[in-house]
Amino acid sequence: MSKHIGAVLGAALFSCVMGAAAAQDVELRSLDGTVELEGNLISYDGAFYRLDTVYGPLTVSAEGVSCAGPGCPDLATFVAETRIAGAATVAAGLLPDLLAAFASAQGMALDVETGPEGPVYILRRADGSPAARFAITPGSTDDGFLALLNGEADIALALREPSVAEIVASEAASPDDPPLDDRVRVLALDALVPVVSPENPIDALSLPDLARLFSGDVTNWQDLGGPDAPISLHALAPGFGLSQAFATRVLLPSEAGLSAQITRHEGAESLAQAVARDAYAVGITARSGAGAAHALPLVGTCGYPLSATLEAVKAEDYPLTAPVYMYLAPRRLPLLVRQFLAFTETEEAERIVGEAGFVNQLLTSTPLALQGERLSNAIRAAGEDVDLAELQHVVEVLGSAERLSTTLRFNPGGAGLDIQSRTSVSRLAAAIERGTFDGQQLIFAGFSDSDGSSTMNARLSLRRAGVVLDAVLAAGVARADRVEMTSVGFGEAMPMACDDTDWGRAVNRRVEVWVD
């Protein structure tokens, strides 16, 4: 007879039960020697043992026990191992800098070795022994999801959300585990931008223009107000997340197929170089990789220009914003890997994201007085449903406030916040907890598109603003009494884009956060 323990995740909590157990490969014993647990070691992550016992899988904190048996890990020399696969632009252009900064913050050195599928970044302790190995396999977003679903990667780097087929495959492989949408973090922001040579006189394109260009319906620049010259098309390889996002968000709504006359590139850098050298070329690529090519603003039929500025991408006002996702395996990652994931949300990491050419998620603010483009758009859009009194009401409420870069949007056709917005809610709640807005007022301002009556849209925008405010409070804000928070709905006032397209309406349906 021996005493056994039950364990809960994250704590060394023991409850004694009686029962016989056959000899197993490890035995965990409480430090006072009064209780024991035998089982097969499933994993050790640097902080917790995971055992398969007669009572099922149990997780036990290493701090409260000693380990005996042939399966016990060597705690002094334990190496955290993780495999990361997916988007090459992120794997090569951002991860190395983040790992170097994380190693420095841990007081460790960083070495790089060549592995069978890509670089292996090794974090070394002061004595030179390895503490962690991050094996990176650069490729496409498709590659990242495939490796994650096959159990060949712990983290997938993606520049798009998973497809229906990938979601179904994930649920089939692990029906009892959290869905992919609950195992995702937003590492940074990027955007899809049309690029031309600096010598090309075209100064803007619409989404329908892009669909006509890349479907092959338009083959001469003269049809778009440019010179009489043939158009050369450039795009990223099909497996890249941004390439797939372009097909889904631009070509599919226009019911356009992709032209066969497209030069494909295995990276944004080579695409930008090719386009910059050719006065009659046009490409669709990542904002972070536009290089010497000239990124064009998007324009609607009503004439509202939308450029992929840092502010517009951070607020998702630019319609082709593309978050950089990290999808995690449905298993507990080693402690040092979890600490790295936490580091990616720090201000130091956000600074590195910006220096690498991506858009970070640090909160910034802009006074209403410096938002001339959107004020101009609002005045031009004013009419029967949005009169001068409505615009005056906006200025009265927000005139002395500053708009935060956090902007919240909902999933198409649903009441739930999209992935990027859920991340933004968590970051905003954390900022409130840190005291960033103590003694100030946060205004959650809802806006709508122009579909339906202005009265209905005003109510809808107010309701959405309230949903976001409630989500922030539910995210763990314990200091809400030190910040005044209120919600207001402005309906279809202050449009960001034309309302005559699905993407324009989607951009206009939003909840902004203002601080006063």
Mean pLDDT: 85
CATH homologous superfamily designation of the largest domain: OmpA-like domain
Please give the CATH architecture of the largest domain: 2-Layer Sandwich
What does the overall shape look like? globular
Find the structural class using helix and strand composition. alpha+beta
Assign the CATH topology of the largest domain.
60s Ribosomal Protein L30, Chain: A
Q: In terms of per-residue confidence, which ranges show pLDDT below 50 for 5 or more consecutive residues?
A: 1-23
Residue share in helix: 25-40%
What is the straight-line distance between the termini?
67 Å
Q: Biggest sheet: strands, sense, closure? A: 11 strands, mixed
Total beta strands = 25
Furnish the topology, listing elements before pairings.
Layout: E1 2-5, E2 16-19, E3 26-30, E4 36-44, E5 48-53, E6 56-61, E7 65-68, E8 80-87, H1 88-93, H2 95-105, E9 109-114, E10 119-124, E11 130-139, H3 141-149, E12 155-158, H4 164-173, E13 184-196, H5 207-215, E14 232-236, H6 241-251, E15 262-265, H7 268-277, E16 281-286, E17 294-295, E18 298-299, E19 305-306, H8 310-314, E20 321-328, H9 335-343, H10 347-355, E21 365-367, H11 372-381, H12 388-398, E22 402-408, H13 419-433, E23 441-447, H14 454-474, E24 484-489, H15 502-508, E25 510-515
Helix pairs in contact: 2-10, 13-14
